[in-house]
Write a structure and sequence with these properties.
Blueprint (H helix, E strand, L loop, with lengths): L2 E4 L4 H7 L6 E3 L4 H4 L8 E4 L11 H22 L6 E7 L7 E3 L9 H13 L6 E6 L1 E3 L4 H10 L12 E2 L1 E3 H14 L3 E5 L5 E2 H12 L9 H8 L3 H5 L2 E3 L2 H5 L7 H8 L1
Parallel strand pairs: 1-2, 1-3, 3-4, 4-6, 5-12, 6-10, 7-9
Antiparallel strand pairs: 8-11
Helix pairs in contact: 3-4, 7-11
Length: 266
């Protein structure tokens, strides 16, 4: 099985690449030079896109959109004129309303993040080959969101955001890798929510992380400070979305627990 990973140099891409033999890795720097090579691959995984947790200027919002929608459009055009057997693209929890308790059948939300996800998925589903879309929650692994959280917690100054009651949807990077393999081996199509069935509150997550590190977590971060630091992008960090992995549970998938995930990672 020949696999190409677009966006393969990022946090998720690097980890997913580990489960395949000699995958083709394409990133933003070599996209235009290498993208035609995907014609000769069996599976194409699309993880392209600028980082979302960053202060959004008008210019950066355009970059977020272009790096997802325009890139996916180009990929699909090539796949539709190739021998590719399976296309796996990406979306995110921002597809859904905030707040919400949602599964794959729930309606979409409004606002920039929702439009970004909706348009991203529309481009992916123009693919004429078997297509799967992963809607990601926060992925916990050796980089990404968890890496940004660890320093203040190790220093004993970590804490809840706001009142800590907001739902926190997450998934272990090891589960992500296993799900890619499951979907490819069984050629599962359609939309899948990549989120653990163990949905916790921000308070529960914070206390579990502090306990794992054997550090206190007594200094709450006021919501207004998150908004000051990240502006409009603060929506990503203070959202209250419980994204349920209905379809993966129906397939019998067993998720790792938050406690075991954090113990392994930290």
């Amino acid at each position: 099985m020949k696999v190409a990973i677009i966006g393969g140099s990022g946090f998720i891409g690097r980890n997913v690449a580990e489960i395949f033999d000699n995958p083709l890795i394409i990133d933003s720097k070599n996209f235009n030079q290498q993208i035609d090579k995907i014609r000769d691959y069996d599976v194409v995984i699309n993880l392209a896109g600028k980082p979302i947790v960053k202060r959004w200027s008008k210019k950066y919002k355009k970059e977020l959109y272009s790096s997802r929608i325009k890139t996916t459009k180009k990929i699909v055009e090539i796949i539709n004129d190739s021998n590719v057997k399976h296309f796996i693209s990406t979306s995110a929890i921002g597809y859904y309303p905030n707040p919400c308790e949602c599964d794959e059948d729930s309606k979409s939300g409004n606002g920039f993040l929702a439009k970004l996800a909706i348009d991203w998925e529309k481009e992916a589903f123009k693919c004429t080959k078997p297509t799967t879309i992963f809607r990601f929650s926060v992925v916990l692994g050796d980089d990404g969101a968890l890496a940004k959280m660890l320093l203040p917690f190790k220093m004993g100054v970590g804490g809840i955001i706001g009142d800590g009651k907001q739902k926190f949807s997450w998934i272990d990077i090891e589960d992500v890798k296993n799900i890619y393999k499951l979907v490819i081996d069984n050629q599962i199509e359609g939309v899948l929510n990549l989120s653990s069935d163990e949905i916790v509150t921000n308070y529960q997550f914070t206390k579990t992380l502090a306990k794992t590190l054997n550090r206190p977590a007594i200094l709450p971060m006021p919501v207004f400070m998150i908004k000051v630091i990240f502006g409009e992008a603060s929506e990503v960090l203070i959202s209250n979305q419980a994204m349920k992995p209905k379809k993966l549970l129906e397939l019998g998938y067993k998720f790792n627990s938050l406690e075991n995930c954090l113990k392994r990672l930290v």
